[in-house]
Amino acid sequence: MLRSARLSLGAALLALVLVGLVSTPAQAAVWYSTDRWGTWSNGGYTLYNNVWGSGYGPQTIWANSATNWGVWANHPNTGGIKAYPNSTKWSGKKVSALGTLSSSFNLTVPTSGVAFTSAYDVWSSDNAHEIMLWMNKYGAVGPLGTLQTSVSVGGHSWNVYRGSNGSNQVYSFVRTSNTSSGTVDIKAICTWIKNRGWFGDVTIGNVQFGYEITSSSGGKDFVTNNLTITAT
Questions:
Q1: How many CA atoms lie less than 13 Å away from 36 in the CB half-sphere?
Q2: 216, HSE (Cβ side, Cα atoms, 13 Å)
Q3: Of residues 16 and 44, which shows the higher confidence score?
Q4: How far apart are CA 209 and CA 106, in angstroms?
Q5: pLDDT value at 20 more than 70
Q6: H-helix or E-strand containing 149?
């Protein structure tokens, strides 16, 4: 009886270990990091854990591939952005010289008990101009600046805000309704801004996509099922 009980206990403990490994994507991933500045480059993309705000909690970034990755984050509900875990690809072309600059995405994100946006962050190469494309938003979050107009461009309908954070100009395109999948013509958006006279023929530098997280108390999963950025 004692030997049987020990065997049963051992089997139960093994099952718990296996369940723990399966339920934590980072454990089975090609790469993961709990370092707030953890980075990984693969296939022309660089992933950044990027926990940069004050009052942050623990965050783990993981990747099965360059285009399939995610984040587990447990940031307290104290206000202020805590992190922007993201995938980055470089363009290096002037707006007028862009061939294709587009992206497709498919996400699984929490929709309650959180404050965050899933957003592209597109930078001029000198970091003087920042274009944010908000694909979805939940909780108490809002764009910088003041509302300028509403427009349909790049395959989506947006409310467009413009302002400065003291370091650079920020143009925030907030989608009029949330979506967790789609394709964005980023070139068309850059051209629209240029034609409006908000910037000149700037060189587009880093094209990022990630989760700007203000709070995710208790631990939430943000999964990028697929993300591709095409820059030619």
A1: 12
A2: 26
A3: 44
A4: 12
A5: no
A6: strand 146-153
In 3D space, the residue among 172, 123, 181, 129 whose CA is nearest the CA of residue 151 turns out to be 172
pLDDT tens per residue across span 90-120: 999 999 999 999 999 999 999 999 999 999 9
Whole-number mean pLDDT of the chain?
91
* CA atoms 86, 91, 97, 103: torsion sign: negative
Structure tokens at 117: 């946006």
Give the span between the Cα atoms of 144 and 151, in whole angstroms. 18
pTM assigned to the model: 0.88
Given pLDDT bands bounded at 50, 70 and 90, which one contains residue 10? very low
Q: Which of 99, 122, 108 is nearest to 70 (CA)?
A: 108
Please report the sign of the dihedral spanned by the C-alpha atoms of residue 29, residue 33, residue 65, residue 54.
positive
Residue 64 CB contacts under 8 Å (≥ 6 apart), including other chains: 25, 28, 29, 30
As a whole number of angstroms, the distance between CA 213 and CA 116 comes to 4
Alpha carbons 198 and 170: distance in angstroms, whole number? 10
